[in-house]
Design brief:
Layout: H1 2-21, E1 26-33, E2 37-46, E3 49-59, E4 63-68, E5 74-82, E6 91-96, E7 99-106, E8 115-117, H2 120-151, H3 155-182, H4 188-196, H5 202-211, H6 214-217, H7 220-233
Parallel strand pairs: 1-7
Antiparallel strand pairs: 1-4, 2-3, 2-5, 5-6, 7-8
């Protein structure tokens, strides 16, 4: 009896140790070359508010490593606090997922020089961001031209610009729908749908929903997307 109790106690200890070893599923490592003093903040959006998850004090060594447990892949932000600097290039978006993710960048060009490896969702996020920048540039250009046409009292030009804006919007919706559909096995798919095409016709949202894998549907963005689709159908 005593040996049995001892064996059970030992087994319980081993199980507890294994649980402690498995308290994290994400490791973030990185280096901000040239960053000697200040803080790095890991943040994410919770109910429309940017919330700090963790921080790293940098005092001489610009390399860092942090371990976390995340429920599902999600967009996080690595914010840098520089002493005696008004630089606006302080925020880096990272689409994290379980595993080891490495971030290498420089103090001088924190955003533009950033190289993030180890996350397939982040690789696709970079592709999506290029598309977004392209369409945002075209949209802003049309807005500027419409303001000028209004000042010039040129209704013909305004009509032409409005037609062009509608075509760009339709093209953008189709591109984002195809992007999400083609990457239905990654959490970036519902994220893009939520970020860019919430007001699109529900048949396109249905197309995306059918492409999502069960694992993605269970993720944070997958659940949010499912809620959106259900509310749109009511």
């Amino acid at each position: 009896m005593r040996k049995t109790l001892l064996a059970l106690a030992t087994l319980a200890t081993l199980i507890a140790c294994n649980k402690n070893d498995e308290t994290h599923n994400l490791t973030l490592t990185g280096n901000v070359e040239g960053f000697k003093q200040g803080k790095l903040y890991l943040q994410k959006i919770v109910d429309t508010t940017l919330v700090t998850i963790d921080s790293v004090i940098v005092d001489g060594d610009s390399k860092f490593e942090r371990k976390f447990n995340i429920e599902s892949p999600e967009l996080y932000f690595l914010n840098i606090e520089r002493h005696n600097s008004n630089n606006l290039d302080n925020m880096l978006a990272i689409f994290v997922e379980p595993g080891v993710i490495n971030i290498n960048t420089t103090l001088q060009n924190y955003y533009s020089n950033a190289k993030v490896t180890g996350s397939k969702n982040h690789d696709l996020f970079v592709e999506y961001r290029k598309l977004a920048e392209k369409y945002n540039f075209e949209t802003n250009s049309i807005i500027a031209q419409k303001l000028l046409a209004s000042k010039e009292n040129n209704p013909k030009k305004l009509d032409s610009l409005n037609n062009r804006a509608e075509k760009i919007t339709m093209m953008k919706y189709l591109v984002y729908t195809n992007f999400a559909k083609n990457h239905g096995d990654k959490e970036i798919a519902p994220y893009v749908a939520l970020a860019e095409i919430q007001d699109i016709n529900t048949k396109y949202l249905d197309t995306i929903a059918k492409a999502l894998t069960p694992e993605v549907i269970k993720s944070k963005y997958g659940k949010d997307f499912t809620q959106l689709l259900e509310s749109r159908k009511k």
